[in-house]
Amino acid sequence: MCRGVMATEQARSGRMPVVVCPSQLDFYLDQQESHKQVLTLYNINDFSVRFQLLSNAPRRYAVAEPEGLLKPHSFTDVVVRHREAVEGNVGRRDHLRIIMCEEGGRLHGHRDVPATLRPARSRGDEPCSASSVPLEPSPGTERQPSRGAANGPSFAVVVVALACLVALVLPLEGASSSSHPYLQLTHQQKLIAAYILGLITMVIVRQ
């Protein structure tokens, strides 16, 4: 059942926000590990939603769990694997559609995520190889160890991620069941928190 003014307005239009990260999938022909990508789906609503993942080329992609249920203020990872990573499909741009609908209700929404098979990852995206020559420090300076590589994400990144998680858990603005109206957030604020959390997740995974 819809709650609050914001939910009531959405019920009239029959639309609901669909938050997905990343916004596009890039597979690379020359990198086997890139043939498997992860889509993170967020439910920023006060009610459970059902999701379903569709594609305009279903034979080209394999999804372990193409549909399921998301509880309020939660997220899930969906693994997408490219099954036809061959030269003939290089440059082909497909679309994955994520459909979400309110469980037992009329609210629904969808988002399209482009999926492209590329020939090779650009040099700017590749990690440094063993044959690369590192830059030498200037005379009189000391070489500092890389804290990010040794200790994982920095304290500031962890704090921001926790703040975003708290923002997603807080009730929506106008929710009648909330006893602390000053802790309520708007849909726009929750969308921003979900987007930032998705970016942080990608950074941590790539480290």
Notes on the protein architecture:
By secondary structure, the protein is α+β, with helices and mostly antiparallel strands. Among the domains are: 18-118, Immunoglobulins (Immunoglobulin-like); 157-164 and 186-206. Helices cover 24% and strands 29% of the residues. It contains 4 helices and 9 strands. The strands form 2 sheets. A 5-stranded mixed beta sheet has the order 2-9-8-4-6, with no helix packed on it. Strands 1-3-7-5 form a 4-stranded antiparallel beta sheet, with helices on one face. A hairpin with a 5-residue loop joins strand 8 and strand 9. The longest helix has 20 residues, at 187-206. Residues 1-13 and 126-150 have low confidence and may be disordered.
In N-to-C order, the SSE pattern is HEEEEEEEEEHHH
Specify the structural class.
alpha+beta
What is the number of helices?
4
By CATH, the superfamily of one domain comes out as Immunoglobulins
The CATH C-level name of one domain is: Mainly Beta
Biggest sheet descriptor: 5 strands, mixed
Can you tag this structure with a few keywords?
alpha+beta; globular; disordered N terminus; Immunoglobulin-like; single chain; 24% helix; 4 helices; five-stranded mixed β-sheet; membrane; 207 residues; Ig-like_fold
Topology:
Layout: H1 4-13, E1 19-21, E2 25-28, E3 36-43, E4 49-55, E5 61-63, E6 67-70, E7 74-82, E8 93-102, E9 108-118, H2 147-151, H3 155-169, H4 187-206
Parallel strand pairs: 2-9
Antiparallel strand pairs: 1-3, 3-7, 4-6, 4-8, 5-7, 8-9
Helix pairs in contact: 3-4
